[in-house]
Amino acid sequence: MEHRRLGQSGLKVPVLSLGTATFGGSNAFFERWGSTQADEARRLVDLCLEHGLNFFDTADVYSDGVSEQVLGHALRGRRDAVLISTKATFATGSGPNDKGSSRHHLLRACEASLKRLQTDHIDLYFMHGFDAQTPVDETLRALDDLVTSGKIGYIGASNFSGWHLMKALATSERLGLGRYVAYQGYYSLIGRDYEWELMPLALDQGVGTMVWSPLGWGRLTGKIRRGQPMADGRIAAGGAQGGPPVDQEQLYDIVEVLAQIAAARGRTIAQVALNWVLGRPGVANVVIGARNEEQLVQNLGAVGWSLDADEVRRLDDVSRQTPAYPYWHQMGFEERNPKPTRW
Fold it and tell me: Which of 4, 74, 275, 291 is positioned for an S-S bond with 41, CB 3.0–4.6 A?
């Protein structure tokens, strides 16, 4: 398993981490993703560790905290051998202070996550979304205190706009507070918006990228093909609901190219799609999901090899999208304002 440095921190992480949104399934939304319980979760953790994947990602809102509980149980007795990331900000109760990134909420949310995870520290703690109603310095001071106390190792941001992230980084520098070392965001062949603003920002500011949903909410697994009925499973059952809208014809085109490369390589469509993401600028880690052992083993096969330049070009071309303004305008003078990728 390859390891990469996470942003400007000294922490090295495996290029793959296991996302545990499939653990628990305690409500209708997350049940569509999966309902892995303790014994099966422990087996999935065993498989990950056998393959050198020792990084596990969760959040306090996944299945109302049950995901953290299941993960904590699965990691019992081997906490020192793994890295854990979790998240806070979204609502965990009905009270007015049971959400957001205020000091009041974050201190309580962190303690609750520590208890559910059965640990005394969280290696990487993400703000799950930007809270515009809380001053940025209040959030960062609370996080800095949690780092100083040893309850958190590093902090990260997820689902922020570019200006949200830059404002936070500038505030950390101005006040001498801990800075976000990682950004966790959506990025896939069918969703390349991340390249417009967030990727250049992360590269410029030394923020490591963790990618969630690299298979485009399951659309890039090969189950969705032009002219073919959809295979039974999570996607057919509505598991992609809530995901971003996509151009269906472009999706078919992308999957066709993925299938061609997969056949030539002796790989699966999902492995090729994951490998493309792993090769993008600034990507430190890709969060993979798995409802069962078979899916996990398949996704682990995305590492240990690389697409060649022609294969990358073919995938770049078929997945190209016209960016929003001002990004399409900036493409006209890239000699003065170069971009890390060509949209």
Answer: 74
